[in-house]
Amino acid sequence: xxxxxxxxxxxxxxxxxxxxxxxxxxxxxxxxxxxxxxxxxxxxxxxxxxxxxxxxxxxxxxxxxxxxxxxxxxxxxxxxxxxxxxxxxxxxxxxxxxxxxxxxxxxxxxxxxxxxxxxxxxxxxxxxxxxxxxxxxxxxxxxxxxxxxxxxxxxxxxxxxxxxxxxxxxxxxxxxxxxxxxxxxxxxxxxxxxxxxxxxxxxxxxxxxxxxxxxxxxxxxxxxxxxxxxxxxxxxxxxxxxxxxxxxxxxxxxxxxxxxxxxxxxxxxxxxxxxxxxxxxxxxxxxxxxx
Length: 291
Fold this sequence. Notes:
The protein has 291 residues and is an alpha+beta fold. The protein has two domains: 131 residues, 2-Layer Sandwich (Beta-Lactamase), CATH 3.30.450.20; 151 residues. Helices cover 59% and strands 12% of the residues. It contains eight helices and seven strands. Strands 1, 2, 3, 4, 5, 6 and 7 form a seven-stranded antiparallel beta sheet that branches. The longest helix is centred in the middle third of the chain and has 39 residues. It is elongated and about 90 Å long. This is General glycosylation pathway protein.
């Protein structure tokens, strides 16, 4: 889906012009209301839904008209939330940014046309639209397998994250109430486990958002860098805690082994420096792109 969004972004002007001009060529929409917009559905294979709202309060005053059915459930619904997606201006036709349709559950764009004090809204399935325009080729079976794999993997990662958090809590309470013994290790080990659990959960959440649920509607390189940086920082924190625990253990048991702790701290320091350089060069790259 990220590739589809990038394709749409690269061709947004041509796509919007195509939709606007074709809708204009089909004539006034209110003339087609009586035949349930058959002309529009024939002209646009990607058109999945048409409905009408009052211009004043954006209340839906028509049923949801799909390609092969009509639903009366949404009549009278408040559609003001669409105002954040559709920028109504002096132009009679506006096109929204891509979003997930609450009616179909598919990624779509909405074209709004103002006529006779009403707003006609046409929802287009984004993937089908890109296909019909020859901008993408879609293999449904492969997409289903890919999406299913991402979903299963992310869910397993979330279960592992939950298990890690549970292990941390169990180990901590076991040390206090069963062993009745508190040490530096009994405190630091649960903290490390909790940190790793958080990192795993955050990674799984990102996979679900970008590859399954499509919460992120554009291929945003900056967002991807943020995910990588956030995950790296979490891992570095866990390593720093582990290093600190090793230093304490060696200092108490045998300070002659302190050189090994030094190597560990040095390795973590190298990771921190590398991450700092990565963040710096990434910011410079993003700045140069906007110049």
